[in-house]
Amino acid sequence: MSKKALYLLGIAITIILGTFLYLKFCCNCSEKITTDDTPKTVSTPVQEPNFVPFVLNGPGIEYQTHDNLKFLKNSATLIIPVSDSVISGIQKLKTFLVSNPQQKVTITGYATSDETNSTTFENLGLARANEVKNYFVSEGLSEKQFNTKGEIIDKWKMSADTLLGPANYAFDTIDSTATAATTDEWTALKDKINADPLILHFNTNQSRETLTTLEKQKVADIVKYTEHVKEAVVLAVGHSDNVGNRDSNIVLGQKRAEFSKNYLSKKGIDATRIETQSKGPDEPIGDNNTSEGKASNRRTVITIK
Fold first, then answer.
1. Greatest CA separation for the chain
2. Cβ atoms within 10 A of the Cβ of 132, count?
3. CA separation, residue 293 to residues 217, 247, 253 (Å)
4. Phi and psi (nearest 5°) for 245?
5. Residue pLDDT, tens place only, 32-88
6. How much is the pLDDT for 33?
7. I need a surface site. Which of 32, 59, 148, 204 has the fewest CB within 10 A?
8. Centroid of chain to Cα 46
9. In the chain, what percentage of residues exceed pLDDT 90?
10. Whole-angstrom Cα distance, residue 172 to residue 252?
């Protein structure tokens, strides 16, 4: 076979082999490739807000702010200063509680199970609840209108090493029947005080602080009444006998009323809630012609307005 024939045979074999290999390995390339040109929407994970709102939600009050009271991990000490928005809510709570003296609020404090309790309280949650209550009291709220509880939970929202608002506020339901009964109780006590008022007697130009057992009980009743009836005002009226001129006795009666006011203030009644007056010799209850009558006229009469 000539070289030319061999050359042509080689070309033919190469073509046949190439066609075979193409059909074997590349035939799938002829298939139509489809693509989905629809834009894909990438879902962005929802970021949980890094706050726990301060919420007061009860019958007659509704307040919420994203800021809150805060505590460091393992600590029962409130982080100071407290934000203005939280203080605003506390003042709204104060106004509400003053208008509703029978309302009670239960503060539940929380702590996580991995925190260390170094307080004297049963658990760190209870310690935090009492810390919140004490802060409320420092802002002018009545301690008697709060109860406290503590709970240990698995986790709580934090920012770094700070727990965000680990407390809840539950408003107790007021029993209107009990409220009416309580109102009747204080009305009855006021009537009792005014029907047989506390009368402090004085020697001539002198004051005294020694009280009888009955007088001490009357003071206790007045203190009890003013503690529970926040709008109550105590009235102390000073009197004198008719010895000397009237102007001097008016002054003396006022001094006796002021002495009585100071005495009651020491017993726990806010001095701003005690009014004083002087009648001097104008309203005697005894005969000024006798020593016994004059002694009975030197007095201060204390009632509830």
1. 173
2. 24
3. 25, 20, 16
4. -85, 160
5. 444 555 555 555 555 556 789 999 999 899 999 999 999 999 999 999 999 999 999
6. 45
7. 32
8. 33
9. 67
10. 50
The encoded tokens of residue 18 equal 């190439």
Side by side, the strands of the sheet bearing 105-112 are 146-153, 105-112, 167-171
Cis geometry, peptide bond prior to residue 81 (ω within 30 degrees of 0): yes
What CA–CA distance (Å, rounded) separates 261 from 249?
18
Residue given tokens 């006011």 in the structure block? 261
In terms of phi and psi (left: phi > 0; alpha: psi -120 to 50; beta: otherwise), the region of 244 is: left
171: tokens are 């408003």
Backbone torsion region of residue 167, taken as left when φ is above 0, otherwise alpha when ψ lies between -120 and 50, otherwise beta: beta
Give the model's pLDDT for residue 212.
85
List of E strands, 119-223: 146-153, 158-159, 162-164, 167-171, 198-201
Distance CA 83, CA 292 (A): 64
Q: Are 93 and 61 in contact (CB under 8 A)?
A: yes
pLDDT for residue 175: 65
Q: How far apart are CA 83 and CA 165, in angstroms?
A: 12
Residue at 246: amino acid letter: R
pLDDT mean across residues, the chain: 87
Residue 97 CB neighbours (<10 A): 23
CA 54 – CA 296 distance, rounded (Å): 60
What three-state secondary structure class fits 52? coil
The structure tokens 């307005």 sit at 305
Using one digit for the tens of pLDDT, what is the confidence trace for 135-163?
Answer: 999 999 999 999 999 999 999 999 999 99
Residue 124 · residue 106 · CB < 8 Å = no
Per the model's pLDDT, the better-predicted residue between 126 and 10 turns out to be 126
